[in-house]
Every structure is written in C-alpha cells, then in structure tokens.
Design brief:
With about 280 residues, this protein is mainly α. The chain contains 15 helices and 4 strands. Helices cover about 65% and strands about 5% of the residues. A two-stranded antiparallel ribbon has the order 1-2. Helix 8 packs parallel to helix 10, helix 9 (about 130-140) packs antiparallel against helix 10 and helix 12 (about 185-200) runs antiparallel to helix 13 (about 205-220).
C-alpha cells in the first residue's frame, strides 16, 4: 500500500488538506456514509486505541456489498460541475479499498472496475490513473477487456497537446492487449499510436523508435518471443506491485528467460538466442 500511496501527485495530496472543500462539494455522497466509516471500509485505527478484534469474513463481504451499492448510487448522482473533484475523491476511495489486503483476501477485487468507471467518466484526462487501472482491473480482477474499454475513454479525451504524457495510455492499453488479451492487431495499433504521441516529448527520442519497432515486429511475427520478453520485462521493472511482478516473472521464465541475481539479490532476465 505504501508504494501505491507514494505515487500520489501534489494535486491529490492537496485535496486531503482541503477536506472542507471536498466535503462541501460531495455533501450528497457523504450523507450516504455510515457512521464511523468511509464507504463501508473500516476506518483507520487511531493512535493509542487498542487494536480492533479480527473482522469476520461475513463482515468483509457485507462491507463489500455496501460499498458496491454506494458506488452504484454515486454513478447516478449529479456532480453539479465538480467532476474532477468526484474523480479525485473516488480514486482516494479506491486506494483505501485496494490497500486493504485482509479484506481483499476474502472478497477479491471485484469493485475495481466500478471505481475506475466513475473516475474515467468524470476525469478521463487524468493520465496518472491509467497504470493503476491496468494493474487493478487487468491483473487483480483478471478483466483486461474491461480495462482496455475504460482506457479508450482516456484516448478519446486526450491528445499530446492536452498532456505530453498521454502516450502512456496507449502504451498501457497496448501491453494489456498484447500480454493479456492476445489481440495482436490492436496491440500493434496501440504501439503505433504510442509512438506518434510520444514524439516531441522529452522521452520521444528514445521511446518512439522502440514503440515503432514493437509494432513492426508484431506485424512480421505475431507470436514474437523477443517482443513478449521485452514487454513482460517492462512490466516487471516498472511496477512496485508484488503480485504483478510475480506474474511478469512467471511469464518471463515461461518464455525461456534465464534468471540472474546480483550480489544484492536483484533479479535480471536474459533471453538466450534461439538454437542455444
């Protein structure tokens, strides 16, 4: 959970400081919250209090059902022009939900898609949320087709002129299509578009050729092992999430990669040349 929270931008942190503004804008939503809870998820224990007794599996499931109902109501509520604030607040709620490992071990991550449905409806231009969407919905919920559909909202609302980092949405979409859906034509197009959108940015000189090469390799060899190796390697090295990293490691080993460890225990992967 700490790794997830560390990725907050200053924008999100400022919302916590400006809680009165959020409370006023979301008064209708706050009114639905049960006493002592935020969205049906157990409140954080305060300093000096004795630890609460272990919550039963039935309680976790009940809280999950209550939160699902709240999200359903939130989708139907008018925002009165505070769309971005609703998206910010919902993302903070998602982090609380996703970071509750004890509860998720009982109920799973079924509400992830609902959180991101709300977020991408109200603020589809929020580029920073799409890696979270991919991890939570594609990997944890095992529904990459839903993640891709939600990412398409961002693609429709964004451009390199709106946000120079918008290419990241195409890249995340392309990785899900390639590695989890096996949709090679769409993965190829996503990498072509990522190359177009990254040009002119500080990362463009390095990344645009790489994305185009990936697309070209996929056109020539849809089952390209080197491309899948490079894609899973990117997933492995770019995530701090243990579950996603484990999935990437398993995929790399399955592709035939050799695992190397340095003196500090850090792993790296080498793909032997064919025929060796």
């Amino acid at each position: 959970m700490e790794a997830k929270v560390e990725q907050f931008s200053q924008k999100w942190l400022s919302l916590l400081v400006s809680g009165l503004i959020a409370a006023a804008a979301l008064a209708g939503v706050v009114a639905m919250q049960s006493s002592g809870q935020l969205g049906g998820i157990t409140a954080v224990e305060t300093q000096g209090e004795k630890p609460a007794p272990a919550i039963s599996a039935a309680s976790f499931k009940q809280s999950e059902q209550q939160e699902g109902l709240r999200l359903k109501m939130l989708k139907a509520l008018p925002t009165f022009g505070f769309d971005n604030l609703v998206a910010d607040w919902t993302f903070l709620k998602f982090l609380q939900y996703f970071g509750d490992d004890e509860a998720r071990s009982v109920t799973g991550y079924h509400l992830s898609q609902d959180y991101f449905d709300i977020i991408t409806r109200h603020d589809p231009r929020w580029v920073e949320i799409y890696p979270f969407l991919s991890i939570a919905v594609s990997f944890y919920q095992a529904k990459p087709e839903i993640a891709v559909r939600l990412m398409e909202r961002g693609i429709s609302a964004l451009s390199p002129q709106i946000d120079p980092q918008a290419w990241r949405v195409w890249r995340n979409k392309g990785l899900d299509e390639l590695l989890l859906l096996g949709d090679i034509p769409q993965a190829t197009r996503s990498h072509d578009m990522a190359a177009q959108w990254v040009e002119g940015t500080p990362e463009g000189q390095k990344l645009a050729p790489m994305f185009r090469a990936t697309a070209n390799f996929l056109r020539r060899d849809p089952d390209s092992v080197p491309v899948r190796f490079a894609a899973w390697s990117a997933v492995y090295y770019q995530t701090n999430d243990k579950f996603v990293r484990q999935k990437a490691r398993q995929a790399l080993v399955k592709l035939g990669a050799q695992v190397r460890k340095d003196k500090d225990g850090n792993e790296s992967f080498i793909l032997p040349t064919r025929g060796n």
